[in-house]
Amino acid sequence: MNGPLVEAGSAPAWLRPLIEISGELDSDTFTRFAPPEDQFTRSAAVLILFGEGARGPDVLLLRRAETLGSHAGQVAFPGGSVDEDDGGVIETALREAEEETGVDPSGVRPVAVLPELFVPVSRFAVTPVLAHWQTPSPVRAVDPAETATVARVAIGDLADPGNRFQVRRPGTGYLGPAFAVDGLFVWGFTAGVLSVLLSLGGWERDWDRGDVRDLDAALHEHGWERR
After folding, report:
1. Model confidence over 92-144: pLDDT tens digits?
2. Distance (Å, whole) CA 200 – CA 197
3. Is the pTM of this model over 0.90?
4. Residue 97 bridge partners (DSSP)
5. What residue numbers bound the domain in which 14 lies?
6. Is the pLDDT of residue 73 over 80?
């Protein structure tokens, strides 16, 4: 079940709205895709880690290595498949974040669990875990074969209207939000979740939803191709 893991009042004021509303959300808040009942899906978890740096609240993102077989080069939250030895999605999210970015889990406080979200392209049922980075630790691309870049991206930069637009994949019906910030091009599942969280957290600013760009052209402009 999704919902708060802590009292909202024990978290920073800027994070409280997300904690408070987390129990009221369902998957339809984030995606129109539902897991097919007659086909196999794999369980996964991602860590949406909010910290506070010199430029205000930020979120930890990574860019996957170009050599990976799936989602190569895409910007994502730290995360991965649930292992049999994991004690649940929270443990999965923390373990994967440590393995991919080197973040010290002892400084991370999980604060809420969001609804499980289905990602059709990879057939994963992904549970996002919201967390507060109480004691930030150094982060890096632990294994360059898996992770190309790790970055703390300011919420204010994500909310900046100049960094937001939509992308369309002709012939597929796909239309979704995207961000170009700090040298990262964010689209797909990650951009969709971030877009909703900006709204729910009260950070969203008016932006031009009529700015719709061709996905492949946008990928090429930002230095990589869709795989």
Report:
1. 999 999 999 999 999 999 999 999 999 887 788 999 999 999 999 999 999 98
2. 5
3. yes
4. none
5. 3-221
6. no
CATH number at residue 190: 3.90.79.10
Least Cα distance to 76 among 21, 27, 24, 121 occurs for 121
Q: Two tokens at 81?
A: 């498949």
Residues contacting 124, CB < 8 A, separation 6+? 41, 42, 43, 44, 81, 118
Place of tokens 């982060």: 139
212 forms beta bridges with 166
Backbone angles phi, psi at 142, to 5 degrees: -65, -45
Q: What is the CA radius of gyration of the chain?
A: 17
> Token match 């998957």: residue?
27
Q: Is residue 227 part of a domain?
A: no
Average pLDDT, the chain: 92
Number of independent structural domains in the chain:
1
Asked whether residue 67 carries a pLDDT value surpassing 70, the answer given is no
- Cα separation, 219 vs 196, in Å, equals 22
Residues 6+ apart with CB under 8 A from 52: 12, 14, 58, 133
Residue 157 in any domain: the answer is yes
For 178-194, the pLDDT digits (tens) are 999 999 999 999 999 99
Nearest to 60 by CA among 131, 10, 118, 109: 131
